[in-house]
Amino acid sequence: MRAILKYTALTLFAIPWVLVPVWLVVVNSFKPAGEAAELGLGLPRTWAVAENYGIVLDRGGYLTGLLNSLKVTVPIVVAVVLLGAAAAWAFGRSRSRWLQAAYFVMGLSILLPPSIIPTVYLLRALSLDGGSLGYVLTMTGCRLGIVIFLATGFVRAFPPDLENAAAIDGASRPQVFFRILLPLLRPVLFVGGVILIINVWNDFFFALFLLQGSANATLPLSLFQFASGTLQSLNWNLVFAHVLLTTLPLVAVYVVAQKRVLAGLTEGSLKG
Amino acid sequence: MVMRNRAAWLPWALPAIVLVTVFFVAPFLLNVRFAFSSWTSFRAEITWNGLENVRTLIDQDLLANAVTVTVLYAILCMAIQNTVSLSLALALQRTNRLNTIFRSAFFLPTLISPLAAGYIWRGLLAPDGAVNSFLGIEWAWLGEPSTALVTVAFIDAWKWSGLITLVYIAGLNSIPKSLLESATVDGAGPWTRFRRVVFPMLAPALTFNVAVTLVGALSAYDVIAATTGGGPGDHTRALNVVMRQQWGQGFFGSASALGFTVTLLVIATAVPLVWWLRRREVTG
């Protein structure tokens, strides 16, 4: 009885919290402009699926945005996960004071907000401003901290016996890293990696300052430019079609990974 | 043996240290200088000018309002987010099939970009939108000074609640079952169990979530850009919104000063929280 009550309450909460927002986006992205302007939740009286999505793909810069988003997200996630794991190994095992001091700085970088304006200045000085390389390097530098922090805790929780035994057997350091350490860190790197993908894919603030011109625009930037182009009265059908197409790749990643993400987060694999 | 050689660890950490130093620490230090420098698009030279940027921002009535809006926004965001997430976590704590489906559903908003979340709720909350027609009223949630800030904070909280729920579930699952069982044997009801056992044991997760949500919301920008753009008037003009405007107008020094203000607010929020957490670990 109590269970029935609980799940009824949860369902009643999930309807406005999840279902209605999703439905609003989907159904209005199928309507012609005039009908979508009513922002109703009913089915389209006239269907305009092909037109709307055609316009978003064509004028909304969706395909360029998708390519640009992939072009920055993949290198950032790979760099943060690999370099972060390598650094976490050093921070977790070495007793050097210098490295421990460096580890403390990494911790600070999680908490403190990145200074975006000096970053633009710095990238300009390095002739890296406006393009995706500067963006990739900046995002990597600003997101390494959290992965290092989580993975170092994980490394410390494991005794180094396995690594020592492998070294005695003649394994080189890179071999130990790839064969023993990375598999060991897999749960924490997996969860960290998925959160990172979500974070980088959806980043708007850094992109707004660091990426210039529509040739470099990632999906959130292209959504913003597309929506701001008609600021007086948003073309809701097109904005929602863009929102749907922008979110879909992440939903796909999540559907594949959700079991391990949910299990990893709720059963505390982040604690090591 | 090789693994004990201290110097040999450095190459493993070096790439990460270099990237964080160049792209996080260096801008951070530069910001301290730029915040107190004259630097505009009209004069490329960057010269020390003390508190001139701060004075200009105060004279234009920008700074005090932005700080107030940012702090209020962060508190509202934190309160909404943690209330919703803790309630959901308590309901979905046990891992079974039905709960997993609900957890997945409530995680969905986390996948949506804050910008897109802003557009979605701007549509739902439009004066003639779905929310108002359900409530039978006509109200510009984002257009009225009295509700704009709390509405934007709500959207931000909506976007992140799924992730925070999972952290709370992890916290709940780390409470030893024996503790709850012995409390039940001693005659404690559900409410007493929650107040005397669950809530105190949940303190680390609570502190973590409160800190993360506060610190995150102090840097708010995306949702505001997609919904109100800082309006009506200056009621949702948070620090980062003003920073972007100053930057766009070519006042780079003033923009740096605003960014530095966000940093100071974060430090003022985070230091006491971390200190409190450390002390708890020592005594508890």
Q: How are the secondary structure elements laid out?
A:
The complex is a heterodimer of chains A (272) and B (284).
Chain A: H1 2-28, H2 33-36, H3 49-58, H4 62-93, H5 97-111, H6 116-125, H7 132-157, H8 161-168, H9 173-201, H10 205-210, H11 219-228, H12 236-266
Helix pairs in contact in A: 1-12, 3-12, 4-7, 4-9, 4-11, 5-7, 7-9, 8-9, 9-12, 11-12
Chain B: H1 10-34, E1 37-38, E2 47-48, H2 52-59, H3 63-91, H4 97-111, H5 114-124, H6 130-135, H7 145-173, H8 177-185, H9 190-201, H10 203-218, H11 222-227, H12 239-248, H13 252-283
Antiparallel strand pairs in B: 1-2
Helix pairs in contact in B: 2-13, 3-7, 3-10, 4-7, 5-7, 7-10, 8-9, 10-13, 12-13
Summarize the structure.
Chain B: It is found in: Cell membrane. The complex is a heterodimer of chains A (272) and B (284). Chain A has 272 residues and is mostly helical.
